[in-house]
Amino acid sequence: MSERLVVIGSQWGDEGKGKVTDYFACRADMVVRYQGGNNAGHSVMFNGHKYSLQSIPSGIFNPATVNVMGNGMVVNPESVLVELQKLHDQGITDYQLYISDRAAMVMPWHSALDGAYEALKGGKLIGTTKKGIGPAYSDKYSRIGLRMGDLLEPEYFAERLQGALEQKNMELKTLGLPTYDFQEVYDRYMEIAKILGPRIVDTSYLINKALRGDKKILFEGAQGMMLCIDHGTYPFVTSSTPSSASVPVGAGISPKWIDNVLGVAKAYCTRVGEGPFPTELHDEIAHEIRERGHEYGTVTGRPRRVGWFDAVVARYTSRLAGIDNWALMLFDVLSGLDKVKICTHYELDGKIIDTPPSTISKLARCKPVFIEMEGWKDDITGIRSYDELPEAAKAYVKKIEELTEVPVGVISVGPDRTQTIIVSEKLKNF
Protein backbone atom coordinates (compact mmCIF):
# COMPACT_ATOMS: atom_id res chain seq x y z
CA MET A 1 0.00 0.00 0.00
CA SER A 2 1.18 3.51 -0.76
CA GLU A 3 2.56 6.06 1.69
CA ARG A 4 1.06 9.52 1.46
CA LEU A 5 2.38 12.83 2.73
CA VAL A 6 0.65 16.19 2.34
CA VAL A 7 2.84 19.30 2.67
CA ILE A 8 1.01 22.56 3.32
CA GLY A 9 1.95 26.10 4.27
CA SER A 10 0.57 27.04 7.68
CA GLN A 11 1.16 30.80 7.74
CA TRP A 12 0.91 33.43 4.97
CA GLY A 13 2.91 31.54 2.37
CA ASP A 14 6.67 31.65 1.74
CA GLU A 15 7.21 29.25 4.67
CA GLY A 16 9.85 27.15 2.94
CA LYS A 17 7.60 24.55 1.33
CA GLY A 18 9.94 24.30 -1.66
CA LYS A 19 12.79 22.94 0.43
CA VAL A 20 10.55 20.54 2.35
CA THR A 21 8.88 19.15 -0.74
CA ASP A 22 12.23 18.86 -2.49
CA TYR A 23 13.65 16.94 0.50
CA PHE A 24 10.84 14.40 0.52
CA ALA A 25 10.46 14.42 -3.27
CA CYS A 26 13.87 12.74 -3.46
CA ARG A 27 12.20 9.81 -1.70
CA ALA A 28 8.81 10.04 -3.44
CA ASP A 29 7.62 8.14 -6.47
CA MET A 30 5.13 10.90 -7.29
CA VAL A 31 4.72 14.60 -6.42
CA VAL A 32 1.31 16.20 -6.97
CA ARG A 33 0.43 19.93 -7.00
CA TYR A 34 -3.27 20.20 -6.23
CA GLN A 35 -4.11 23.94 -6.23
CA GLY A 36 -2.84 27.42 -7.10
CA GLY A 37 -0.93 28.49 -10.16
CA ASN A 38 2.23 30.26 -11.22
CA ASN A 39 1.80 32.82 -8.43
CA ALA A 40 3.24 30.27 -6.01
CA GLY A 41 6.95 30.94 -6.28
CA HIS A 42 9.28 28.79 -4.24
CA SER A 43 12.99 28.13 -4.24
CA VAL A 44 14.96 24.93 -3.89
CA MET A 45 18.69 24.85 -3.14
CA PHE A 46 20.99 21.84 -3.44
CA ASN A 47 24.57 21.19 -4.53
CA GLY A 48 25.22 24.90 -4.18
CA HIS A 49 22.65 25.84 -6.83
CA LYS A 50 19.37 27.72 -6.36
CA TYR A 51 16.37 26.80 -8.50
CA SER A 52 13.14 28.79 -8.62
CA LEU A 53 9.79 27.20 -9.45
CA GLN A 54 6.33 28.67 -9.84
CA SER A 55 3.84 26.08 -11.03
CA ILE A 56 5.93 22.97 -11.66
CA PRO A 57 6.05 20.43 -8.77
CA SER A 58 9.21 20.21 -6.69
CA GLY A 59 9.96 16.62 -7.70
CA ILE A 60 11.06 17.84 -11.13
CA PHE A 61 14.73 17.48 -10.11
CA ASN A 62 14.48 13.72 -9.59
CA PRO A 63 14.28 11.79 -12.92
CA ALA A 64 12.58 8.85 -11.17
CA THR A 65 9.76 10.97 -9.72
CA VAL A 66 6.47 11.41 -11.56
CA ASN A 67 5.38 15.06 -11.30
CA VAL A 68 1.70 15.92 -11.59
CA MET A 69 -0.05 19.27 -12.00
CA GLY A 70 -3.52 18.39 -10.76
CA ASN A 71 -6.98 19.46 -11.85
CA GLY A 72 -7.31 21.86 -8.90
CA MET A 73 -4.58 24.08 -10.34
CA VAL A 74 -4.98 26.90 -12.82
CA VAL A 75 -2.24 26.35 -15.40
CA ASN A 76 -0.61 29.02 -17.52
CA PRO A 77 0.81 27.04 -20.48
CA GLU A 78 3.11 29.89 -21.49
CA SER A 79 4.53 30.03 -17.97
CA VAL A 80 5.06 26.26 -17.96
CA LEU A 81 7.09 26.51 -21.17
CA VAL A 82 9.20 29.34 -19.69
CA GLU A 83 9.84 27.32 -16.51
CA LEU A 84 10.82 24.22 -18.47
CA GLN A 85 13.18 26.25 -20.65
CA LYS A 86 14.79 27.80 -17.59
CA LEU A 87 15.26 24.37 -16.04
CA HIS A 88 16.72 23.15 -19.31
CA ASP A 89 19.21 26.01 -19.30
CA GLN A 90 20.22 24.95 -15.76
CA GLY A 91 20.83 21.38 -16.84
CA ILE A 92 17.53 19.88 -15.68
CA THR A 93 16.44 17.91 -18.75
CA ASP A 94 15.53 14.44 -17.46
CA TYR A 95 12.13 14.51 -15.75
CA GLN A 96 8.56 13.18 -15.82
CA LEU A 97 5.80 15.79 -15.92
CA TYR A 98 2.06 15.43 -16.52
CA ILE A 99 -0.69 18.07 -16.54
CA SER A 100 -4.33 17.36 -15.77
CA ASP A 101 -6.64 17.57 -18.76
CA ARG A 102 -9.21 19.04 -16.35
CA ALA A 103 -7.01 21.88 -15.06
CA ALA A 104 -8.27 25.37 -15.90
CA MET A 105 -6.03 27.52 -18.09
CA VAL A 106 -4.72 30.97 -17.28
CA MET A 107 -5.18 32.86 -20.56
CA PRO A 108 -3.41 36.07 -21.66
CA TRP A 109 -6.37 38.29 -20.79
CA HIS A 110 -6.49 37.04 -17.21
CA SER A 111 -3.32 38.87 -16.17
CA ALA A 112 -4.53 42.05 -17.88
CA LEU A 113 -7.84 41.85 -16.02
CA ASP A 114 -6.04 41.02 -12.77
CA GLY A 115 -4.08 44.26 -12.95
CA ALA A 116 -7.15 46.27 -13.96
CA TYR A 117 -9.26 44.90 -11.11
CA GLU A 118 -6.48 45.74 -8.67
CA ALA A 119 -6.20 49.30 -10.01
CA LEU A 120 -9.96 49.82 -9.58
CA LYS A 121 -9.56 49.19 -5.84
CA GLY A 122 -7.68 52.45 -5.49
CA GLY A 123 -5.83 52.51 -2.17
CA LYS A 124 -7.41 49.26 -0.94
CA LEU A 125 -5.15 46.88 -2.83
CA ILE A 126 -5.26 43.13 -2.27
CA GLY A 127 -1.59 42.78 -3.20
CA THR A 128 -2.15 40.31 -6.05
CA THR A 129 0.85 39.11 -8.08
CA LYS A 130 -1.12 40.10 -11.23
CA LYS A 131 -0.51 36.64 -12.69
CA GLY A 132 -4.19 36.27 -13.60
CA ILE A 133 -4.89 33.57 -11.01
CA GLY A 134 -8.02 35.13 -9.53
CA PRO A 135 -9.67 35.88 -12.91
CA ALA A 136 -8.82 32.35 -14.11
CA TYR A 137 -10.50 30.78 -11.08
CA SER A 138 -13.42 33.18 -11.55
CA ASP A 139 -13.90 32.04 -15.14
CA LYS A 140 -13.64 28.42 -14.01
CA TYR A 141 -16.52 28.84 -11.59
CA SER A 142 -18.44 30.96 -14.09
CA ARG A 143 -18.11 27.98 -16.47
CA ILE A 144 -16.61 30.02 -19.30
CA GLY A 145 -13.00 29.04 -18.68
CA LEU A 146 -10.83 26.92 -20.94
CA ARG A 147 -9.19 23.70 -19.73
CA MET A 148 -5.91 22.06 -20.67
CA GLY A 149 -7.66 19.09 -22.23
CA ASP A 150 -9.41 21.42 -24.67
CA LEU A 151 -6.06 21.87 -26.44
CA LEU A 152 -6.18 18.23 -27.54
CA GLU A 153 -9.35 18.85 -29.60
CA PRO A 154 -8.69 21.74 -32.03
CA GLU A 155 -12.30 22.18 -33.19
CA TYR A 156 -13.65 22.03 -29.64
CA PHE A 157 -10.95 24.43 -28.45
CA ALA A 158 -11.86 26.87 -31.24
CA GLU A 159 -15.51 26.78 -30.18
CA ARG A 160 -14.68 27.34 -26.51
CA LEU A 161 -12.17 30.07 -27.32
CA GLN A 162 -14.64 31.94 -29.51
CA GLY A 163 -17.22 31.97 -26.75
CA ALA A 164 -14.72 33.11 -24.13
CA LEU A 165 -13.34 35.90 -26.30
CA GLU A 166 -16.78 37.31 -27.08
CA GLN A 167 -17.30 37.91 -23.39
CA LYS A 168 -13.76 38.80 -22.39
CA ASN A 169 -13.14 41.26 -25.23
CA MET A 170 -16.30 43.07 -24.25
CA GLU A 171 -15.02 43.31 -20.68
CA LEU A 172 -11.57 44.43 -21.82
CA LYS A 173 -13.10 47.18 -23.99
CA THR A 174 -15.13 48.43 -21.06
CA LEU A 175 -11.96 48.72 -18.99
CA GLY A 176 -10.09 50.47 -21.80
CA LEU A 177 -7.72 47.54 -22.38
CA PRO A 178 -6.53 45.99 -25.66
CA THR A 179 -8.62 43.12 -26.98
CA TYR A 180 -7.43 39.76 -28.36
CA ASP A 181 -7.68 38.43 -31.89
CA PHE A 182 -9.21 34.96 -32.13
CA GLN A 183 -6.89 33.66 -34.85
CA GLU A 184 -3.72 34.86 -33.16
CA VAL A 185 -4.66 33.25 -29.86
CA TYR A 186 -5.87 30.07 -31.55
CA ASP A 187 -2.69 29.65 -33.61
CA ARG A 188 -0.44 30.27 -30.62
CA TYR A 189 -2.23 27.74 -28.45
CA MET A 190 -2.20 25.11 -31.16
CA GLU A 191 1.59 25.53 -31.20
CA ILE A 192 1.60 25.11 -27.42
CA ALA A 193 -0.53 21.97 -27.82
CA LYS A 194 2.16 20.43 -30.03
CA ILE A 195 4.71 20.85 -27.22
CA LEU A 196 2.64 20.13 -24.10
CA GLY A 197 0.04 17.84 -25.66
CA PRO A 198 1.81 14.55 -24.76
CA ARG A 199 1.91 15.69 -21.12
CA ILE A 200 -1.82 16.47 -20.87
CA VAL A 201 -3.54 13.38 -19.47
CA ASP A 202 -6.14 12.16 -16.98
CA THR A 203 -3.92 12.67 -13.94
CA SER A 204 -6.58 11.46 -11.51
CA TYR A 205 -6.26 8.03 -13.12
CA LEU A 206 -2.45 8.14 -12.75
CA ILE A 207 -2.61 9.19 -9.10
CA ASN A 208 -5.21 6.61 -8.13
CA LYS A 209 -3.20 3.88 -9.82
CA ALA A 210 -0.16 4.93 -7.76
CA LEU A 211 -2.24 5.02 -4.57
CA ARG A 212 -3.18 1.40 -5.07
CA GLY A 213 0.42 0.41 -5.63
CA ASP A 214 3.42 0.37 -3.32
CA LYS A 215 4.25 4.03 -3.98
CA LYS A 216 5.33 7.03 -1.94
CA ILE A 217 3.21 10.03 -2.93
CA LEU A 218 3.79 13.63 -1.91
CA PHE A 219 0.94 16.14 -2.27
CA GLU A 220 2.32 19.67 -2.55
CA GLY A 221 0.25 22.73 -1.66
CA ALA A 222 0.90 26.33 -2.67
CA GLN A 223 0.62 29.56 -0.67
CA GLY A 224 -0.38 29.19 3.00
CA MET A 225 -3.45 28.53 5.10
CA MET A 226 -3.80 32.17 6.17
CA LEU A 227 -4.20 33.02 2.47
CA CYS A 228 -7.04 30.49 2.08
CA ILE A 229 -10.08 31.92 0.24
CA ASP A 230 -12.38 30.44 2.91
CA HIS A 231 -10.38 30.53 6.14
CA GLY A 232 -7.67 33.14 5.56
CA THR A 233 -7.51 36.88 6.17
CA TYR A 234 -10.20 37.62 3.62
CA PRO A 235 -10.15 39.56 1.28
CA PHE A 236 -6.32 39.62 1.46
CA VAL A 237 -6.13 36.01 0.34
CA THR A 238 -5.42 33.86 -2.69
CA SER A 239 -8.15 32.40 -4.91
CA SER A 240 -7.96 28.77 -3.79
CA THR A 241 -7.79 26.66 -0.64
CA PRO A 242 -4.26 25.50 0.28
CA SER A 243 -5.53 23.14 2.99
CA SER A 244 -5.06 19.37 3.03
CA ALA A 245 -8.85 19.31 2.67
CA SER A 246 -8.36 20.45 -0.95
CA VAL A 247 -6.24 17.46 -1.89
CA PRO A 248 -9.12 15.08 -2.72
CA VAL A 249 -10.84 17.56 -5.04
CA GLY A 250 -7.68 19.13 -6.48
CA ALA A 251 -5.97 15.80 -7.18
CA GLY A 252 -9.04 13.72 -8.01
CA ILE A 253 -8.80 11.17 -5.20
CA SER A 254 -10.91 9.94 -2.28
CA PRO A 255 -10.52 11.70 1.12
CA LYS A 256 -9.73 8.32 2.68
CA TRP A 257 -6.18 8.52 1.32
CA ILE A 258 -5.20 11.61 3.37
CA ASP A 259 -3.55 10.49 6.61
CA ASN A 260 -0.23 12.32 7.09
CA VAL A 261 -0.09 16.12 6.99
CA LEU A 262 3.10 18.14 7.45
CA GLY A 263 2.53 21.82 8.24
CA VAL A 264 5.38 24.06 7.12
CA ALA A 265 6.03 27.06 9.35
CA LYS A 266 8.89 29.49 9.64
CA ALA A 267 10.47 29.82 13.06
CA TYR A 268 9.11 33.36 12.81
CA CYS A 269 6.39 34.81 10.55
CA THR A 270 6.40 36.71 7.27
CA ARG A 271 3.78 38.15 4.98
CA VAL A 272 3.84 39.69 1.50
CA GLY A 273 1.30 42.29 0.45
CA GLU A 274 -1.51 43.91 2.35
CA GLY A 275 -3.63 42.73 5.25
CA PRO A 276 -3.42 42.55 9.06
CA PHE A 277 -0.32 40.93 10.54
CA PRO A 278 -0.59 40.87 14.36
CA THR A 279 3.02 40.01 15.26
CA GLU A 280 4.64 42.31 12.66
CA LEU A 281 7.88 44.03 13.66
CA HIS A 282 8.99 47.46 12.50
CA ASP A 283 12.36 47.73 14.24
CA GLU A 284 15.99 46.77 13.68
CA ILE A 285 15.25 43.14 14.56
CA ALA A 286 12.80 42.99 11.64
CA HIS A 287 15.49 44.30 9.29
CA GLU A 288 18.04 41.82 10.66
CA ILE A 289 15.70 38.85 10.23
CA ARG A 290 14.66 40.01 6.74
CA GLU A 291 18.24 40.27 5.53
CA ARG A 292 19.47 37.08 7.18
CA GLY A 293 16.46 35.14 5.92
CA HIS A 294 16.58 36.74 2.44
CA GLU A 295 12.93 37.62 2.87
CA TYR A 296 12.07 38.84 -0.59
CA GLY A 297 9.34 37.34 -2.79
CA THR A 298 10.43 34.62 -5.27
CA VAL A 299 7.94 35.79 -7.90
CA THR A 300 7.62 39.52 -7.14
CA GLY A 301 10.89 40.40 -5.40
CA ARG A 302 8.86 42.38 -2.87
CA PRO A 303 10.35 42.64 0.65
CA ARG A 304 8.36 40.49 3.05
CA ARG A 305 6.92 41.86 6.26
CA VAL A 306 8.48 40.16 9.30
CA GLY A 307 7.07 39.24 12.72
CA TRP A 308 7.52 36.84 15.63
CA PHE A 309 6.13 33.30 15.56
CA ASP A 310 2.34 33.35 15.97
CA ALA A 311 1.04 30.35 17.93
CA VAL A 312 -2.53 31.63 17.54
CA VAL A 313 -2.24 31.22 13.78
CA ALA A 314 -0.42 27.89 14.15
CA ARG A 315 -3.17 26.44 16.37
CA TYR A 316 -5.82 27.67 13.94
CA THR A 317 -4.25 26.25 10.79
CA SER A 318 -3.40 23.00 12.55
CA ARG A 319 -7.05 22.58 13.49
CA LEU A 320 -8.25 23.32 9.97
CA ALA A 321 -5.76 21.13 8.12
CA GLY A 322 -5.25 18.27 10.59
CA ILE A 323 -1.52 18.88 10.87
CA ASP A 324 0.37 15.89 12.32
CA ASN A 325 3.85 17.47 12.47
CA TRP A 326 5.49 20.85 12.02
CA ALA A 327 8.36 21.50 9.66
CA LEU A 328 10.07 24.42 11.41
CA MET A 329 11.91 26.36 8.72
CA LEU A 330 14.70 28.96 8.73
CA PHE A 331 15.44 28.12 12.33
CA ASP A 332 19.04 29.23 11.84
CA VAL A 333 17.90 32.79 11.07
CA LEU A 334 17.05 33.30 14.76
CA SER A 335 20.60 32.40 15.87
CA GLY A 336 22.43 35.37 17.37
CA LEU A 337 19.38 37.13 18.81
CA ASP A 338 19.55 37.92 22.53
CA LYS A 339 15.83 37.29 23.01
CA VAL A 340 13.13 35.60 20.95
CA LYS A 341 9.38 35.95 21.30
CA ILE A 342 6.31 33.84 20.62
CA CYS A 343 2.76 35.17 20.42
CA THR A 344 0.54 32.95 22.59
CA HIS A 345 -2.80 34.82 22.41
CA TYR A 346 -4.38 38.01 21.08
CA GLU A 347 -5.98 40.83 22.99
CA LEU A 348 -9.08 42.07 21.17
CA ASP A 349 -10.99 45.03 22.61
CA GLY A 350 -9.79 44.16 26.12
CA LYS A 351 -10.53 40.42 25.86
CA ILE A 352 -7.99 37.61 25.48
CA ILE A 353 -8.73 35.30 22.55
CA ASP A 354 -6.87 32.22 21.30
CA THR A 355 -8.08 32.00 17.69
CA PRO A 356 -8.08 34.55 14.85
CA PRO A 357 -11.33 36.49 14.34
CA SER A 358 -13.12 36.19 11.01
CA THR A 359 -12.85 39.81 9.82
CA ILE A 360 -9.79 41.87 9.06
CA SER A 361 -11.41 44.71 10.97
CA LYS A 362 -11.18 42.71 14.19
CA LEU A 363 -7.81 41.16 13.31
CA ALA A 364 -6.34 44.63 12.75
CA ARG A 365 -7.37 45.53 16.31
CA CYS A 366 -5.74 42.43 17.79
CA LYS A 367 -2.70 43.02 19.95
CA PRO A 368 -0.25 40.12 20.32
CA VAL A 369 0.38 38.68 23.77
CA PHE A 370 4.02 37.59 23.81
CA ILE A 371 6.22 35.40 25.93
CA GLU A 372 9.93 36.17 25.81
CA MET A 373 12.59 33.48 25.77
CA GLU A 374 16.37 33.34 25.78
CA GLY A 375 18.00 33.36 22.38
CA TRP A 376 21.07 31.40 21.33
CA LYS A 377 24.35 32.58 19.84
CA ASP A 378 25.59 29.30 18.40
CA ASP A 379 25.88 28.70 14.68
CA ILE A 380 23.51 25.78 14.10
CA THR A 381 23.86 25.46 10.31
CA GLY A 382 26.17 22.44 10.63
CA ILE A 383 24.04 20.54 13.15
CA ARG A 384 22.26 17.40 11.90
CA SER A 385 20.80 16.05 15.16
CA TYR A 386 18.14 17.52 17.45
CA ASP A 387 20.15 16.59 20.54
CA GLU A 388 23.06 18.74 19.35
CA LEU A 389 20.97 21.94 19.24
CA PRO A 390 21.65 24.56 21.93
CA GLU A 391 19.44 24.19 25.00
CA ALA A 392 17.77 27.56 24.35
CA ALA A 393 16.95 26.47 20.78
CA LYS A 394 15.45 23.19 22.03
CA ALA A 395 13.42 25.13 24.60
CA TYR A 396 12.02 27.29 21.78
CA VAL A 397 10.99 24.18 19.82
CA LYS A 398 9.38 22.59 22.88
CA LYS A 399 7.43 25.78 23.60
CA ILE A 400 5.97 25.77 20.06
CA GLU A 401 4.99 22.13 20.53
CA GLU A 402 3.37 22.95 23.87
CA LEU A 403 1.43 25.95 22.57
CA THR A 404 0.19 24.22 19.40
CA GLU A 405 -0.14 20.64 20.70
CA VAL A 406 1.58 19.46 17.53
CA PRO A 407 5.10 17.93 17.54
CA VAL A 408 7.92 19.39 15.46
CA GLY A 409 8.95 16.69 12.99
CA VAL A 410 11.40 18.62 10.80
CA ILE A 411 13.84 21.43 11.59
CA SER A 412 15.64 23.34 8.84
CA VAL A 413 18.99 24.84 9.83
CA GLY A 414 20.01 26.19 6.43
CA PRO A 415 18.86 26.56 2.80
CA ASP A 416 20.47 23.39 1.38
CA ARG A 417 18.52 20.12 1.37
CA THR A 418 21.30 18.55 3.50
CA GLN A 419 20.75 21.15 6.26
CA THR A 420 17.69 19.36 7.57
CA ILE A 421 17.03 17.61 10.89
CA ILE A 422 14.31 14.94 10.76
CA VAL A 423 12.90 14.43 14.25
CA SER A 424 9.77 12.37 13.48
CA GLU A 425 10.39 8.64 13.08
CA LYS A 426 7.44 8.39 10.69
CA LEU A 427 8.93 11.06 8.45
CA LYS A 428 12.36 9.40 8.58
CA ASN A 429 10.77 6.36 6.99
CA PHE A 430 9.05 8.21 4.16
List the helices and strands and how they pair.
Layout lengths: L2 E7 L7 H9 L4 E4 L8 E5 L2 E5 L12 E4 L4 E2 L1 H13 L6 E5 L3 E2 L2 H13 L12 H10 L11 H21 L7 H15 L3 E2 L1 H9 L4 E5 L26 H5 L9 E6 L2 E3 L12 H9 L12 E3 L1 E2 H11 L3 E5 L9 E10 L2 E3 L6 H6 L1 E8 L16 H14 L3 E5 L7 E3 L2 H4 L2
Parallel strand pairs: 1-10, 1-11, 2-5, 2-10, 5-7, 6-8, 7-9, 11-15, 14-16, 15-19
Antiparallel strand pairs: 3-4, 12-13, 16-17, 16-18, 19-20
Helix pairs in contact: 3-4
Describe this structure in words.
There is one protein chain. It contains 13 helices and 20 strands. The chain is of the alpha/beta class and 430 residues long. It folds into 3 domains: 3-104 and 200-257, 3-Layer(aba) Sandwich (Adenylosuccinate Synthetase, Chain A, domain 1), CATH 3.40.440.10; 105-196, Adenylosuccinate Synthetase, subunit A, domain 2 (Orthogonal Bundle), CATH 1.10.300; 265-428, Adenylosuccinate Synthetase, subunit A, domain 3 (Adenylosuccinate Synthetase, Chain A, domain 3, Alpha-Beta Complex), CATH 3.90.170. The strands form 5 sheets. A 10-stranded mixed beta sheet has the order 9-7-5-2-10-1-11-15-19-20, with helices on both faces. Strands 14, 16, 17 and 18 form a 4-stranded mixed beta sheet that branches. Strands 3-4 form a two-stranded antiparallel sheet. Helix 3 (108-120) crosses helix 4 (133-142). The longest helix has 21 residues, at 154-174.
